[in-house]
Amino acid sequence: MKSHVQLSNQLSDYPLWTALVTPFDACDQVDYHSLQQLVAQQVEANNGILLLGSTGEGLALTLAEQRKIVEFVCALAPEVPIMVAVGGINLAAQLEWVEFCNSQNIDALLLGSPVYAKPGVVGQTQWFDALLSTAEVPCMIYNVPGRSAVAIAPEVLTNLAHHDNLWALKEASGDIVTFEAFRRALPTLAIYSGDDALMPYFAQAGAAGLVSVAANAWPAQTAEFVRRALSGTSPNLFTTWADAIHSLFAVANPIPVKTLMHLQGQLATPHLRPPLTHLELTNHAALHAANEQILSWN
Fold first, then answer.
1. In degrees, to the nearest 5, what angle opens at C-alpha 181 toward C-alphas 175 and 183?
2. Are 53 and 257 in contact (CB under 8 A)?
3. In the predicted model, what is the mean pLDDT of residues 2-8?
4. Residue 156 in marked binding region
5. Of 5, 10, 279, 288, which shows the fewest CB atoms inside 10 Å?
6. Where are the domains of the chain?
7. pTM above 0.85, yes or no
8. Could you say which of 142, 192, 201, 258 is catalytic?
9. 170 assigned to active site
10. What integer is the mean pLDDT of 199-216?
């Protein structure tokens, strides 16, 4: 049996992870045919796959739907690693979810901070300590204060350093100073940008890769962008990329990316679960322009 360190090293071979959307049909049911096609596209681009994150509308799915999605994708046996999100506010429920994930053929977990409660350093440490102690695979902690309403303190990483399955951090605060504080707190931790547009800047600061929304619509192009960002080549590309990315975040994610994937023909319908609604994005001109721009890359 491979150690957590060996497993983490294997995961680090994947600098791009796609926070996969959850496709629905017009009757609000999970569209498994489309899901299989989306997985195949990510495999072709050699991107890691993250299921049930905020881009995947994970908290809008029932527990039965969440389980079925994980089981379905695992049964496909994709030739890229699978990461599954853990998120919510009820610790007992999240521990049960981790136990379920332990029974599946997944490669990593994304551990979100508890939403709404806004715990301090001690509470955050206890939350992640419990999840890490239960998980049997490498884990990426997720700092996204814009969604969870709490910023993970750098001291929390120091407090958790004894867990050998603490593999990485997804940093989505949008603040390079915070990124640097995390690096100082636990220098051995792999840090991934959680912001598509900021990847070039995080790469210069030592990021290991990107957890991406854009890779849903542009799997191969996003992989090439990450490769260039990490190698420091083609800096003139970064402004073009940022301009295109802004169209994907004009309103709440994943409204724009699902709309774009529908326009591309990747999704039969861009259906969303409430409270998200397409009524917040009625002008698609920016998405069309971004798509033409990115797909024109050589």
1. 110
2. no
3. 73
4. no
5. 279
6. 4-231
7. yes
8. 142
9. yes
10. 95
